[in-house]
Amino acid sequence: MMGNRSSATEFCLLGFPGSQELHHILFAMFFFLYSVTLAGNTVIIMIVCVDKRLHSPMYFFLGHLSALEILVTSIIVPVMLWGLLLPGVQTLSLTACVAQLFLYLAAGTTEFALLGAMAVDRYVAVCNPLRYNIIMNSRTCIWVVIVSWVFGFLSEIWPVYATFQFTFCKSNLLDHFYCDRGQLLKLSCDDTLFTEFVLFLMAVVIIIGSLAPTVVSYTYIFSTILKIPSASGRRKAFSTCASHCTFVVIGYGSCLFLYVKPKQTQAAEYNKIASLLISVLTPFLNPFIFTLRNDKVKEALRDSMKGCCQLLKE
């Protein structure tokens, strides 16, 4: 416990409750998910870069999305695994806590911006296919990605700065497996109500703002697909959007539960579950969503596997 008005210079992560045996089971499970996440998303990045059939805007954005998924999960999971492996609480310095929270939020915001761009890309591909190559040219795609990354990292500077301006004098124990903003605000002796409201408004603008073009795009996409006379044509058109649509539902759903709420200091159990969905489950599912439901990616993977097998035989 800290002094009455002294601020914590380090934080102790309580992590998950339960026995050491349970922690070892959780470690094995999360380590497996993390390993598959790294391998799967790395494979996607590699085949997008190497295979010429995937040199199109959709897969260019997918490569950056996979890189963001690796970043998001690598910011959180290694620290969580270390805490599960060692007995007792895990200690993080104030600097490490600031860095972790900033990178986590910045990568997540970049991902939202990129998902919105991918929805617009699918809209142009389905609703305006004759002008697709003109509208979504390489220069446009590069600028979209640059703006997404810059916006993501710049937009989270003030929220993180404002969070760590408070005096954390109640305790230095965080009931979480990473430096969660809501749990940090619980430790403050200051009045955090106004800041929490501003953070809520910013979350609404960022999440709903990036979700709006997705909703509008898919409204037009579904309307166009339903007008296609043949069933095979409708199925083919929908298959180009199914992976992105599935990922949007999972990604936005979990983030809406975690961040778009007026009271940031939510129950620790609620925050842990939502955080696990964002930092562990969604990055893990990403490679499966975009490979099992995408014929071009599956074909590129099969050809890559054949090439590797031939090299090994020689």
Name of the CATH class: Mainly Alpha
Percentage of β-strand residues? under 5%
Structural class: mainly alpha
The coarse overall form would be globular
Helix content: over 70%
Number of strands: 3
Quick one: biggest sheet?
3 strands, mixed
User: Helix count?
Assistant: 11
- Note the run of SSEs as H and E: EHHEHHHHEHHHHH
- Uncertain segments are none
The N- to C-terminal Cα distance equals 64 Å
CATH superfamily: Rhodopsin 7-helix transmembrane proteins
| Count of individual domains | 1
What is the radius of gyration? 22 Å
Please identify, by name, the CATH architecture.
Up-down Bundle
Describe the structure.
InterPro entries: GPCR_Rhodpsn (IPR000276), GPCR_Rhodpsn_7TM (IPR017452), Olfact_rcpt (IPR000725), Olfact_rcpt_6C-like (IPR047132). By secondary structure, this protein is mainly alpha-helical. It has a single domain, classed as Rhodopsin 7-helix transmembrane proteins (Rhopdopsin 7-helix transmembrane proteins, Up-down Bundle). 75% of the residues lie in helices and 3% in strands. It is built from eleven helices and three strands; from the N terminus they run βααβααααβααααα. It has a three-stranded mixed beta sheet with strand order 2-1-3. The mean pLDDT is 83.
List the helices and strands and how they pair.
Layout: E1 10-13, H1 20-50, H2 57-85, E2 90-93, H3 94-127, H4 132-135, H5 138-155, H6 157-163, E3 173-174, H7 181-186, H8 193-226, H9 231-259, H10 268-292, H11 295-313
Parallel strand pairs: 1-3
Antiparallel strand pairs: 1-2
Helix pairs in contact: 1-2, 1-10, 2-3, 2-10, 3-5, 3-8, 3-9, 8-9, 9-10
